Amino acid sequence: MNPSLSDTPALSRRGLLKFSLGATAFLATAGLGASLSGCSSSTPASGFAILRRGDLLFLRALIPVMLDGAVATEQMPHAVDSTLKNLDNGLNHLSPQMLKLTQQLFDVLGLTVTRGPLTGVWGSWENASADEVRQFLDRWENSSLSLLRMGHSSLLQLVMMAWYSRQESWAHCGYPGPPAV
Prior knowledge:
This is Twin-arginine translocation pathway signal protein. By secondary structure, the chain is mainly α. It has helices at residues 13-37, 53-66, 76-92, 96-110, 112-119, 130-141, 146-164, 170-173. The chain has one domain. It contains 8 helices and no strands. The chain is globular and about 55 Å long. 26% of the residues are buried.
C-alpha cells in the first residue's frame, strides 16, 4: 500500500540536505559574485583599517540591537562607535582566510539581491528598524540551515567580543577588571 501525502514527512532528511547544499552554493555564489563584480568595495571606510562603508551601514543597525539592555540609551552612540573600532582592530588581526570569510558574510548581508530573501530586511540597513534587525537575528539563530546559524553565531561573537573587551562594558557584567600587576 502506498502512503498518502499526509503520512509522508514534508521534508525528508535527503531533501533537507539537498536544500542545504543548494542554499550553501547560492550564498557562496552571491558572496563571490559581489566580490568579483565590485559590488562590495574592498577599500576600507575612512578611519578604519578593514571595515568598508557597506559593512558600517549593516553594523550600525546591528550593534544597537545586540547591545540593547547592556548600554544606556544616551551612551549607545559612543558604544556603537567604540565597538566598531574594536571590531575593526580585531578583524585587522585575523588570518587572511578568516578575514575573507567574514567579508563574504558582510557582502551577502549587504548585497541587495541576497539581503531581502535571507534576512527579511528588504530595504537598506540604515532604514531598518530595531524590530526588523531582531527578527533577522532570530530567523538566522533558529534557521534549519546550518550556514545561517553559523552566520548568526559569527556575528554574535564578533560584536560581543568587540564590546566586552571595552572597559566601559565591564560594570554591566560584574567584571571588576584585570588584576593590577
